[in-house]
Amino acid sequence: MQKDASGNGTLDPQSNRIRSITQKFEETFGSPPTFIASAPGRVNLIGEHTDYNDGYVFPVAIDKYINIAARRRTDRRIKLHASDVNDSWEFNLDARQSIPQQAPAWSHYLIGVASLLQASGRTIAGIDAVITGDVPIGAGLSSSAALSVSATLAFLTAGSELVGDGFPVPENHKKELAALCQRVEHEFAGVNCGIMDQTISLLGKANHGLFLDCRSLEYEHVPLNLAGHYITICNTKVKRELAASEYNKRRAECERGVDILSQWIPGISSLRDIALSDFKKHEEELPALTQKRCRYVIEENTRVLEAVSVLKARNQQITEKTDEALIQFGHLMNASHDGLRDDYEVSCKELDLLTDIARSITGVIGSRMTGAGFGGCTVNIVHKDALETFQTRVRKEYQKQIGIEPEIYRCHVGNGAQVFWNSELS
Ligand code: GLA
User: Fold this and answer.
1) Domain-embedded: residue 55
2) What is the mean pLDDT for each group of 10 consecutive residues in the chain (426 residues)?
3) Residue from 42, 43, 45, 51 to probe ligand 1 pocket by mutation (most atoms less than 8 Å from CB)
4) Beta bridge partners of 222
5) Do 247 and 329 share a domain, yes or no?
6) Residue of the nearest CA to atom 8 in ligand 1?
7) For 129, which of 70, 167, 261, 264 could close a Cys bridge (C-beta 3.0–4.6 Å)?
8) Residues 110, 236: one domain?
9) For residue 407, what are the domain limits?
10) In angstroms, rounded to a whole number, what is the distance separating the alpha carbons of residues 214 and 211?
11) pTM score over 0.85
12) Residue 72 lies inside a defined structural domain of this protein
Protein backbone atom coordinates (compact mmCIF):
# COMPACT_ATOMS: atom_id res chain seq x y z
CA MET A 1 0.00 0.00 0.00
CA GLN A 2 1.13 3.53 -0.69
CA LYS A 3 2.26 5.96 1.96
CA ASP A 4 0.69 9.39 1.78
CA ALA A 5 2.52 12.36 0.27
CA SER A 6 3.69 13.59 3.67
CA GLY A 7 5.50 10.29 4.12
CA ASN A 8 4.14 9.94 7.64
CA GLY A 9 3.12 6.39 7.07
CA THR A 10 -0.67 6.87 7.00
CA LEU A 11 -2.55 5.61 4.01
CA ASP A 12 -3.83 8.06 1.42
CA PRO A 13 -7.64 8.16 1.14
CA GLN A 14 -7.83 6.02 -2.00
CA SER A 15 -5.56 3.36 -0.45
CA ASN A 16 -7.84 3.39 2.58
CA ARG A 17 -10.89 2.91 0.39
CA ILE A 18 -9.21 0.05 -1.41
CA ARG A 19 -8.18 -1.62 1.82
CA SER A 20 -11.69 -1.38 3.18
CA ILE A 21 -13.39 -2.70 0.02
CA THR A 22 -10.91 -5.59 -0.03
CA GLN A 23 -11.98 -6.49 3.51
CA LYS A 24 -15.64 -6.24 2.57
CA PHE A 25 -15.07 -8.51 -0.39
CA GLU A 26 -13.41 -11.10 1.87
CA GLU A 27 -16.29 -10.90 4.35
CA THR A 28 -18.83 -11.34 1.55
CA PHE A 29 -17.14 -13.94 -0.65
CA GLY A 30 -14.73 -15.65 1.74
CA SER A 31 -11.41 -14.86 0.02
CA PRO A 32 -9.70 -11.76 -1.46
CA PRO A 33 -10.63 -10.05 -4.74
CA THR A 34 -8.13 -10.13 -7.60
CA PHE A 35 -8.56 -6.51 -8.62
CA ILE A 36 -10.33 -3.26 -7.88
CA ALA A 37 -11.83 -1.19 -10.69
CA SER A 38 -12.08 2.45 -9.73
CA ALA A 39 -13.83 5.35 -11.48
CA PRO A 40 -14.08 8.97 -10.28
CA GLY A 41 -17.01 11.36 -10.06
CA ARG A 42 -16.63 14.77 -11.67
CA VAL A 43 -17.25 18.42 -11.18
CA ASN A 44 -17.79 20.61 -14.20
CA LEU A 45 -15.94 23.93 -13.98
CA ILE A 46 -17.73 25.54 -16.92
CA GLY A 47 -19.80 24.46 -19.94
CA GLU A 48 -23.14 23.38 -18.47
CA HIS A 49 -25.96 21.95 -20.60
CA THR A 50 -23.73 22.34 -23.63
CA ASP A 51 -22.75 18.69 -24.15
CA TYR A 52 -26.05 17.58 -25.69
CA ASN A 53 -25.92 20.67 -27.92
CA ASP A 54 -22.67 19.40 -29.48
CA GLY A 55 -20.79 22.12 -27.59
CA TYR A 56 -17.82 22.50 -25.26
CA VAL A 57 -17.31 21.48 -21.62
CA PHE A 58 -14.49 21.79 -19.11
CA PRO A 59 -14.90 19.28 -16.25
CA VAL A 60 -12.37 17.73 -13.85
CA ALA A 61 -12.28 14.28 -12.24
CA ILE A 62 -12.52 14.57 -8.46
CA ASP A 63 -11.00 12.44 -5.71
CA LYS A 64 -14.26 10.67 -4.99
CA TYR A 65 -14.75 7.25 -6.51
CA ILE A 66 -16.99 4.28 -7.17
CA ASN A 67 -14.84 1.21 -6.53
CA ILE A 68 -15.66 -2.35 -7.52
CA ALA A 69 -13.61 -5.16 -5.99
CA ALA A 70 -13.96 -8.27 -8.10
CA ARG A 71 -12.81 -11.78 -8.84
CA ARG A 72 -13.46 -13.76 -11.98
CA ARG A 73 -15.82 -16.73 -11.73
CA THR A 74 -15.60 -19.88 -13.78
CA ASP A 75 -19.28 -19.68 -14.77
CA ARG A 76 -21.28 -16.89 -16.42
CA ARG A 77 -22.87 -15.48 -13.26
CA ILE A 78 -22.49 -11.93 -12.02
CA LYS A 79 -22.88 -11.84 -8.22
CA LEU A 80 -23.02 -8.29 -6.89
CA HIS A 81 -23.07 -6.85 -3.39
CA ALA A 82 -23.56 -3.08 -2.96
CA SER A 83 -22.12 -2.74 0.49
CA ASP A 84 -23.09 0.92 1.16
CA VAL A 85 -26.76 0.00 0.87
CA ASN A 86 -26.31 -3.60 2.01
CA ASP A 87 -28.11 -4.96 -1.02
CA SER A 88 -27.29 -7.80 -3.42
CA TRP A 89 -28.27 -8.85 -6.92
CA GLU A 90 -27.17 -11.48 -9.36
CA PHE A 91 -27.72 -12.26 -13.01
CA ASN A 92 -26.46 -14.56 -15.73
CA LEU A 93 -24.54 -13.19 -18.68
CA ASP A 94 -26.27 -15.60 -21.02
CA ALA A 95 -29.79 -14.59 -20.00
CA ARG A 96 -31.71 -11.97 -21.97
CA GLN A 97 -30.49 -8.68 -20.52
CA SER A 98 -33.70 -6.82 -19.86
CA ILE A 99 -34.21 -5.41 -16.38
CA PRO A 100 -36.30 -7.61 -14.09
CA GLN A 101 -38.89 -5.65 -12.10
CA GLN A 102 -37.38 -6.53 -8.73
CA ALA A 103 -33.82 -5.51 -9.71
CA PRO A 104 -32.64 -2.65 -7.47
CA ALA A 105 -31.98 0.67 -9.25
CA TRP A 106 -28.19 0.49 -8.78
CA SER A 107 -28.05 -2.91 -10.52
CA HIS A 108 -29.60 -1.50 -13.71
CA TYR A 109 -26.29 0.13 -14.58
CA LEU A 110 -24.36 -3.12 -14.25
CA ILE A 111 -26.95 -5.09 -16.20
CA GLY A 112 -26.83 -2.37 -18.86
CA VAL A 113 -23.04 -2.32 -19.08
CA ALA A 114 -22.83 -6.13 -19.31
CA SER A 115 -25.48 -6.18 -21.98
CA LEU A 116 -23.98 -3.45 -24.18
CA LEU A 117 -20.41 -4.76 -23.83
CA GLN A 118 -21.56 -8.17 -25.01
CA ALA A 119 -23.59 -6.66 -27.83
CA SER A 120 -20.45 -4.81 -28.94
CA GLY A 121 -18.70 -8.14 -29.31
CA ARG A 122 -16.38 -7.84 -26.30
CA THR A 123 -15.39 -10.79 -24.16
CA ILE A 124 -16.60 -10.51 -20.60
CA ALA A 125 -16.66 -13.07 -17.80
CA GLY A 126 -18.70 -13.86 -14.71
CA ILE A 127 -17.56 -12.13 -11.52
CA ASP A 128 -18.14 -11.88 -7.80
CA ALA A 129 -18.10 -8.19 -6.94
CA VAL A 130 -18.47 -5.75 -4.07
CA ILE A 131 -19.35 -2.14 -4.87
CA THR A 132 -18.70 0.85 -2.61
CA GLY A 133 -18.32 4.56 -3.23
CA ASP A 134 -17.99 8.01 -1.79
CA VAL A 135 -19.35 10.00 -4.74
CA PRO A 136 -22.50 11.45 -3.14
CA ILE A 137 -25.55 9.93 -4.84
CA GLY A 138 -27.95 12.26 -6.65
CA ALA A 139 -25.80 15.32 -5.92
CA GLY A 140 -24.85 16.16 -9.51
CA LEU A 141 -21.30 14.79 -9.20
CA SER A 142 -21.93 11.90 -11.61
CA SER A 143 -22.11 8.92 -9.29
CA SER A 144 -24.03 6.96 -11.91
CA ALA A 145 -21.47 7.64 -14.65
CA ALA A 146 -18.73 6.54 -12.23
CA LEU A 147 -20.72 3.35 -11.51
CA SER A 148 -21.11 2.51 -15.21
CA VAL A 149 -17.46 3.25 -15.92
CA SER A 150 -16.14 1.17 -13.02
CA ALA A 151 -18.50 -1.67 -14.01
CA THR A 152 -17.13 -1.48 -17.57
CA LEU A 153 -13.58 -1.82 -16.26
CA ALA A 154 -14.51 -4.65 -13.93
CA PHE A 155 -16.20 -6.68 -16.68
CA LEU A 156 -13.42 -6.07 -19.20
CA THR A 157 -10.68 -6.87 -16.70
CA ALA A 158 -12.34 -10.15 -15.81
CA GLY A 159 -12.66 -10.80 -19.54
CA SER A 160 -8.85 -10.51 -19.65
CA GLU A 161 -8.48 -7.58 -21.92
CA LEU A 162 -6.11 -5.80 -19.57
CA VAL A 163 -3.31 -4.23 -21.56
CA GLY A 164 -0.95 -3.63 -18.67
CA ASP A 165 -1.23 0.07 -17.86
CA GLY A 166 -3.98 -0.20 -15.29
CA PHE A 167 -6.64 0.11 -17.94
CA PRO A 168 -8.25 -2.88 -19.60
CA VAL A 169 -8.32 -1.58 -23.17
CA PRO A 170 -6.05 0.65 -25.27
CA GLU A 171 -6.21 4.38 -24.61
CA ASN A 172 -7.94 5.05 -27.92
CA HIS A 173 -10.95 2.91 -26.89
CA LYS A 174 -11.88 5.20 -24.03
CA LYS A 175 -14.15 7.45 -26.10
CA GLU A 176 -16.02 4.45 -27.43
CA LEU A 177 -16.49 3.15 -23.88
CA ALA A 178 -17.73 6.57 -22.75
CA ALA A 179 -20.36 6.42 -25.51
CA LEU A 180 -21.31 2.91 -24.38
CA CYS A 181 -21.77 4.11 -20.78
CA GLN A 182 -23.85 7.03 -22.05
CA ARG A 183 -26.10 4.52 -23.83
CA VAL A 184 -26.52 2.68 -20.52
CA GLU A 185 -28.03 5.87 -19.07
CA HIS A 186 -30.32 6.28 -22.09
CA GLU A 187 -31.43 2.67 -22.46
CA PHE A 188 -31.27 1.24 -18.93
CA ALA A 189 -31.81 4.24 -16.63
CA GLY A 190 -34.12 6.36 -18.81
CA VAL A 191 -31.88 9.45 -18.54
CA ASN A 192 -31.25 11.20 -21.82
CA CYS A 193 -27.87 12.65 -20.77
CA GLY A 194 -24.97 14.02 -22.83
CA ILE A 195 -21.46 12.57 -23.08
CA MET A 196 -19.56 14.74 -20.57
CA ASP A 197 -19.79 12.71 -17.36
CA GLN A 198 -18.71 9.35 -18.75
CA THR A 199 -15.88 10.93 -20.77
CA ILE A 200 -14.32 12.78 -17.84
CA SER A 201 -14.61 9.71 -15.61
CA LEU A 202 -12.58 7.79 -18.19
CA LEU A 203 -10.24 10.52 -19.40
CA GLY A 204 -9.59 12.71 -16.35
CA LYS A 205 -6.01 13.67 -15.58
CA ALA A 206 -4.64 14.80 -12.18
CA ASN A 207 -4.38 18.59 -11.91
CA HIS A 208 -5.81 19.11 -15.40
CA GLY A 209 -9.21 20.12 -16.73
CA LEU A 210 -10.61 18.26 -19.74
CA PHE A 211 -11.45 20.63 -22.56
CA LEU A 212 -13.82 18.48 -24.59
CA ASP A 213 -15.53 19.15 -27.89
CA CYS A 214 -18.72 17.12 -27.46
CA ARG A 215 -19.28 16.86 -31.20
CA SER A 216 -15.94 15.51 -32.40
CA LEU A 217 -14.96 14.15 -28.96
CA GLU A 218 -11.54 15.71 -29.48
CA TYR A 219 -10.05 16.78 -26.21
CA GLU A 220 -7.15 18.50 -24.57
CA HIS A 221 -5.90 18.22 -20.98
CA VAL A 222 -5.35 21.80 -19.80
CA PRO A 223 -3.11 22.25 -16.72
CA LEU A 224 -4.93 23.84 -13.80
CA ASN A 225 -2.38 25.91 -11.96
CA LEU A 226 -4.74 27.25 -9.37
CA ALA A 227 -2.00 29.14 -7.50
CA GLY A 228 -3.09 28.70 -3.89
CA HIS A 229 -6.77 28.21 -4.73
CA TYR A 230 -8.89 25.12 -4.13
CA ILE A 231 -11.85 23.68 -5.95
CA THR A 232 -14.46 23.53 -3.23
CA ILE A 233 -17.84 21.89 -3.72
CA CYS A 234 -20.94 22.70 -1.67
CA ASN A 235 -23.79 20.21 -1.63
CA THR A 236 -27.26 21.76 -1.14
CA LYS A 237 -28.49 18.32 -0.01
CA VAL A 238 -31.67 19.14 -1.91
CA LYS A 239 -33.17 16.25 -3.91
CA ARG A 240 -33.15 16.98 -7.63
CA GLU A 241 -36.75 15.99 -8.21
CA LEU A 242 -37.33 18.09 -11.31
CA ALA A 243 -33.97 17.29 -12.85
CA ALA A 244 -34.99 14.47 -15.21
CA SER A 245 -38.20 15.93 -16.60
CA GLU A 246 -36.88 19.49 -16.92
CA TYR A 247 -33.64 18.18 -18.46
CA ASN A 248 -35.60 16.57 -21.27
CA LYS A 249 -37.66 19.73 -21.74
CA ARG A 250 -34.48 21.83 -22.09
CA ARG A 251 -33.13 19.42 -24.68
CA ALA A 252 -36.38 19.70 -26.65
CA GLU A 253 -36.38 23.51 -26.46
CA CYS A 254 -32.81 23.63 -27.80
CA GLU A 255 -33.75 21.34 -30.69
CA ARG A 256 -36.79 23.47 -31.43
CA GLY A 257 -34.55 26.56 -31.51
CA VAL A 258 -32.22 24.94 -34.04
CA ASP A 259 -35.18 23.88 -36.13
CA ILE A 260 -36.60 27.39 -36.35
CA LEU A 261 -33.25 29.17 -36.76
CA SER A 262 -32.18 26.83 -39.56
CA GLN A 263 -34.70 28.65 -41.77
CA TRP A 264 -32.55 31.78 -41.41
CA ILE A 265 -29.09 30.36 -40.78
CA PRO A 266 -28.46 27.59 -43.31
CA GLY A 267 -26.36 24.53 -42.55
CA ILE A 268 -26.79 24.43 -38.77
CA SER A 269 -27.53 21.16 -37.02
CA SER A 270 -27.11 22.18 -33.38
CA LEU A 271 -26.78 25.31 -31.23
CA ARG A 272 -23.03 24.79 -31.33
CA ASP A 273 -23.09 25.90 -34.98
CA ILE A 274 -24.58 29.30 -34.23
CA ALA A 275 -22.33 32.32 -33.63
CA LEU A 276 -23.61 34.77 -31.03
CA SER A 277 -23.69 37.54 -33.66
CA ASP A 278 -25.91 35.43 -35.97
CA PHE A 279 -28.15 34.51 -33.07
CA LYS A 280 -28.66 38.16 -32.22
CA LYS A 281 -29.75 38.90 -35.79
CA HIS A 282 -32.46 36.23 -35.72
CA GLU A 283 -33.42 35.69 -32.08
CA GLU A 284 -36.73 37.52 -32.50
CA GLU A 285 -37.95 34.67 -34.70
CA LEU A 286 -38.02 32.39 -31.65
CA PRO A 287 -40.76 32.06 -29.03
CA ALA A 288 -39.65 33.92 -25.87
CA LEU A 289 -38.82 30.83 -23.81
CA THR A 290 -36.92 29.09 -26.60
CA GLN A 291 -35.02 32.31 -27.18
CA LYS A 292 -33.80 32.42 -23.57
CA ARG A 293 -32.75 28.77 -23.60
CA CYS A 294 -30.83 29.11 -26.86
CA ARG A 295 -29.18 32.36 -25.80
CA TYR A 296 -27.82 30.72 -22.67
CA VAL A 297 -26.32 27.74 -24.55
CA ILE A 298 -24.73 29.88 -27.26
CA GLU A 299 -23.23 32.24 -24.67
CA GLU A 300 -22.04 29.35 -22.51
CA ASN A 301 -20.13 27.81 -25.43
CA THR A 302 -18.38 31.16 -25.92
CA ARG A 303 -17.56 31.29 -22.21
CA VAL A 304 -15.93 27.84 -22.27
CA LEU A 305 -13.71 28.83 -25.18
CA GLU A 306 -12.74 32.03 -23.41
CA ALA A 307 -12.13 30.32 -20.06
CA VAL A 308 -9.86 27.73 -21.65
CA SER A 309 -7.91 30.27 -23.65
CA VAL A 310 -7.46 32.45 -20.56
CA LEU A 311 -6.04 29.47 -18.64
CA LYS A 312 -3.80 28.39 -21.50
CA ALA A 313 -2.37 31.86 -21.97
CA ARG A 314 -1.79 32.12 -18.24
CA ASN A 315 -0.05 28.74 -18.13
CA GLN A 316 2.64 30.09 -20.41
CA GLN A 317 3.63 32.77 -17.96
CA ILE A 318 2.61 32.39 -14.36
CA THR A 319 3.59 35.33 -12.21
CA GLU A 320 3.39 35.93 -8.50
CA LYS A 321 1.34 39.05 -9.11
CA THR A 322 -2.41 39.28 -8.65
CA ASP A 323 -3.66 36.70 -11.01
CA GLU A 324 -5.87 38.53 -13.47
CA ALA A 325 -6.38 35.41 -15.55
CA LEU A 326 -7.77 33.38 -12.68
CA ILE A 327 -10.02 36.28 -11.75
CA GLN A 328 -11.31 36.34 -15.31
CA PHE A 329 -11.88 32.59 -15.14
CA GLY A 330 -13.92 33.20 -11.98
CA HIS A 331 -16.01 35.91 -13.66
CA LEU A 332 -16.84 33.50 -16.45
CA MET A 333 -17.96 30.92 -13.88
CA ASN A 334 -20.18 33.53 -12.23
CA ALA A 335 -21.66 34.55 -15.60
CA SER A 336 -22.34 30.87 -16.33
CA HIS A 337 -24.35 30.58 -13.13
CA ASP A 338 -26.28 33.76 -13.86
CA GLY A 339 -27.25 32.40 -17.28
CA LEU A 340 -28.29 29.06 -15.80
CA ARG A 341 -30.41 30.90 -13.24
CA ASP A 342 -32.03 33.56 -15.45
CA ASP A 343 -32.13 32.20 -19.00
CA TYR A 344 -31.86 28.44 -18.75
CA GLU A 345 -33.79 28.37 -15.44
CA VAL A 346 -32.29 25.19 -14.01
CA SER A 347 -31.05 26.66 -10.73
CA CYS A 348 -33.04 26.80 -7.47
CA LYS A 349 -33.11 28.98 -4.38
CA GLU A 350 -30.65 26.76 -2.50
CA LEU A 351 -28.05 26.86 -5.30
CA ASP A 352 -28.52 30.62 -5.70
CA LEU A 353 -28.09 31.17 -1.98
CA LEU A 354 -24.86 29.14 -1.93
CA THR A 355 -23.42 31.14 -4.82
CA ASP A 356 -24.52 34.44 -3.22
CA ILE A 357 -22.84 33.56 0.07
CA ALA A 358 -19.70 32.39 -1.71
CA ARG A 359 -19.40 35.49 -3.87
CA SER A 360 -19.66 37.75 -0.82
CA ILE A 361 -16.45 36.25 0.63
CA THR A 362 -13.11 37.82 -0.23
CA GLY A 363 -10.85 35.19 -1.76
CA VAL A 364 -13.63 33.38 -3.65
CA ILE A 365 -12.96 34.05 -7.30
CA GLY A 366 -15.89 32.19 -8.84
CA SER A 367 -19.00 30.27 -7.81
CA ARG A 368 -21.63 28.49 -9.87
CA MET A 369 -24.02 25.57 -9.84
CA THR A 370 -22.60 22.46 -11.48
CA GLY A 371 -24.32 19.52 -13.20
CA ALA A 372 -27.92 19.37 -14.37
CA GLY A 373 -29.29 21.67 -11.61
CA PHE A 374 -32.51 21.83 -9.52
CA GLY A 375 -30.41 20.96 -6.46
CA GLY A 376 -27.10 19.18 -6.24
CA CYS A 377 -23.90 21.15 -5.86
CA THR A 378 -22.08 24.40 -6.48
CA VAL A 379 -18.42 24.58 -7.48
CA ASN A 380 -16.27 27.36 -6.05
CA ILE A 381 -12.69 28.48 -6.54
CA VAL A 382 -11.50 29.55 -3.11
CA HIS A 383 -8.15 30.96 -2.04
CA LYS A 384 -6.50 28.88 0.70
CA ASP A 385 -6.53 31.82 3.14
CA ALA A 386 -10.29 32.14 2.72
CA LEU A 387 -11.11 28.44 3.17
CA GLU A 388 -11.91 28.65 6.85
CA THR A 389 -14.14 31.71 6.54
CA PHE A 390 -15.78 30.08 3.53
CA GLN A 391 -16.66 26.92 5.40
CA THR A 392 -17.93 28.74 8.48
CA ARG A 393 -20.00 31.32 6.63
CA VAL A 394 -21.51 28.88 4.12
CA ARG A 395 -22.48 26.45 6.90
CA LYS A 396 -23.94 29.11 9.14
CA GLU A 397 -25.88 31.14 6.59
CA TYR A 398 -27.18 28.20 4.57
CA GLN A 399 -28.33 26.42 7.71
CA LYS A 400 -30.00 29.60 8.98
CA GLN A 401 -31.94 30.26 5.78
CA ILE A 402 -32.66 26.73 4.51
CA GLY A 403 -32.57 24.71 7.71
CA ILE A 404 -30.24 22.07 6.26
CA GLU A 405 -26.56 21.61 6.98
CA PRO A 406 -24.76 21.69 3.61
CA GLU A 407 -21.83 19.40 2.89
CA ILE A 408 -18.57 21.00 1.81
CA TYR A 409 -15.81 19.07 0.03
CA ARG A 410 -12.38 20.44 -0.81
CA CYS A 411 -11.37 18.54 -3.92
CA HIS A 412 -8.20 17.40 -5.52
CA VAL A 413 -8.29 16.90 -9.26
CA GLY A 414 -7.52 13.25 -9.85
CA ASN A 415 -6.97 10.79 -12.68
CA GLY A 416 -9.62 8.97 -14.66
CA ALA A 417 -10.68 5.36 -14.15
CA GLN A 418 -8.13 2.64 -13.53
CA VAL A 419 -7.66 -0.89 -12.25
CA PHE A 420 -5.54 -1.88 -9.25
CA TRP A 421 -4.40 -5.48 -8.92
CA ASN A 422 -4.72 -6.79 -5.42
CA SER A 423 -1.38 -8.59 -5.71
CA GLU A 424 0.34 -5.26 -6.35
CA LEU A 425 -1.37 -3.48 -3.48
CA SER A 426 -0.59 -5.73 -0.53
C1 GLA B 1 -25.93 15.98 -16.41
C2 GLA B 1 -25.75 15.17 -17.68
C3 GLA B 1 -24.58 15.71 -18.51
C4 GLA B 1 -24.76 17.23 -18.75
C5 GLA B 1 -25.05 17.94 -17.43
C6 GLA B 1 -25.37 19.39 -17.64
O7 GLA B 1 -24.82 15.83 -15.59
O8 GLA B 1 -25.47 13.82 -17.35
O9 GLA B 1 -24.52 15.02 -19.73
O10 GLA B 1 -25.74 17.47 -19.70
O11 GLA B 1 -26.11 17.35 -16.73
O12 GLA B 1 -24.25 20.07 -18.12
Assistant:
1) no
2) 36 82 96 96 98 98 97 95 97 84 95 95 92 94 97 92 67 94 95 96 98 97 93 94 86 98 96 98 97 98 97 77 84 98 98 98 97 96 97 98 97 95 73
3) 51
4) 209
5) yes
6) 193
7) 70
8) no
9) 229-411
10) 9
11) yes
12) yes
